[in-house]
Specification:
By secondary structure, the protein is α+β, with helices and mostly antiparallel strands. The protein has nine helices and 13 strands. A hairpin with a 5-residue loop joins strand 2 and strand 3. The radius of gyration is 19 Å and the shape is globular. The protein binds ligand MTE and molybdenum atom. The site of molybdenum atom has 7 residues, from loops. Molybdenum atom (MO) binds next to loops.
């Protein structure tokens, strides 16, 4: 397998050994006691508590604008058992039930199309490509629910820069694994497999767009898209493709699975927008997973999922009802 060309090694200072990481968390938490911070902000400042289920994958707290919401984290149990990953079935519990069948190593990602340096890259090289960061993002599903998830990964731009898109590259397509031996959901025909998604190149290069390898300080559970996925926090959840095996740079807007399946319901952009309803339901409010119960409140959905200050300019002058 070819090595990722010109990839600088991760400098030693970027590596956070687990004990240093834990010690730092304790110190920050101790220092913060007595301060009038809400408990979640305190926990998030001190580092995200690790569930201890999978291999550790720590990340430095991100300093990118908008990357660290102080909203209460959705519990790990909800993040990992209430999923959409149709390759493993259509029920929310199916991915957690069936995704153990996914073999995440060895794993390669083919990068092709309009790039000067195409190639097939192994997961271990991709893990070392750039320093891991923790980013706490609001995620909003088109179905009307949302979560707050501490992801671990780095900007997708880090990979894009290294493969050198040509002047013709205007879009990026992402393709998920489609192996019926590992993925029982492929017997369903709700969408055409493999699952595909796409972004405009400037969206893919935006500093908030992540290539994620972990959540809650550990490697991604299979049901959340192991071993690597895309995370685009200002778009509906389906734009964040899981278990990616191919990234293709194109001149024309690429095919995407949901736009292909129901073009009147799912547009290419799919930016979170409380003013543009889905043809069959309103998008004005959302239900935060993990807050279920009698007193659950419906939260108003925010323009661009609350990331308008960071991403609004990407769409300046566009009719967002037409380009939904
Ligand atoms: N390959 C693939 N990626 C996918 C999906 C899918 O069915 N298959 N579902 C999408 C949808 S609709 C959502 S809301 C998010 C859910 O991600 P999570 O389960 O990690 O919260 O994954 C997205 N990525
Ligand atoms: Mo979704």
């Amino acid at each position: 397998m070819p090595r990722l060309v010109d990839v600088p090694a991760v400098p030693a200072r970027e590596i956070t050994p687990r004990d240093t990481y834990l010690r730092r968390r304790e110190l920050i938490a101790a220092a913060a006691i007595g301060a009038a911070w809400p408990a979640t902000a305190l926990a998030q400042a001190g580092g995200t508590p690790r569930p201890g289920k999978l291999a550790a994958l720590p990340g430095q707290r991100s300093t990118v604008a908008g990357a660290m919401t102080m909203e209460k984290l959705t519990p790990y149990a909800d993040v990992t058992t209430y999923n959409n990953f149709y390759e493993f079935g259509l029920d929310k519990g199916d991915p957690a039930r069936h995704a153990h069948r996914l073999k995440t190593r060895p794993w390669t990602v083919a990068v092709e199309g309009e790039v000067a340096r195409p190639g097939t890259f192994g997961i271990d090289d991709l893990l070392k490509l750039a320093p891991m960061e923790e980013r706490i993002y609001r995620m909003r599903c088109v179905e009307g629910w949302s979560m707050v998830i501490p992801w671990v990964g780095y900007p997708l731009a880090e990979l894009i820069r290294r493969v050198e898109p040509t002047g013709n590259a205007k879009y990026v397509q992402f393709v998920t694994l489609a192996d019926p031996k590992q993925m029982p959901g492929l017997s369903s025909s709700v969408i055409n497999w493999p699952y595909t998604e796409g972004l405009r190149l400037d969206e893919a290069l935006h500093p908030l767009t992540m290539l994620a390898f972990g959540l809650y300080g550990e490697v991604l559970p299979n049901q959340n898209g192991a071993p690597l996925r895309v995370v685009v926090p200002w778009k509906y959840g389906f734009k964040s493709g899981k278990s990616i095996v191919r990234i293709r740079f194109t001149e024309k807007q690429p095919k995407t699975a949901w736009t292909d399946a129901a073009p009147h319901e799912y547009g290419f952009y799919s930016n979170v927008n409380p003013q543009v309803d889905h043809p069959r339901w309103s998008q004005s409010h959302e239900r935060r997973i993990g807050e279920d119960g009698l007193l659950q409140r419906r939260r108003p959905t925010l323009m661009f999922n609350g990331y308008e200050a960071q991403v609004g300019q990407l769409y300046a002058g566009m009719d967002l009802r037409k380009h939904f």
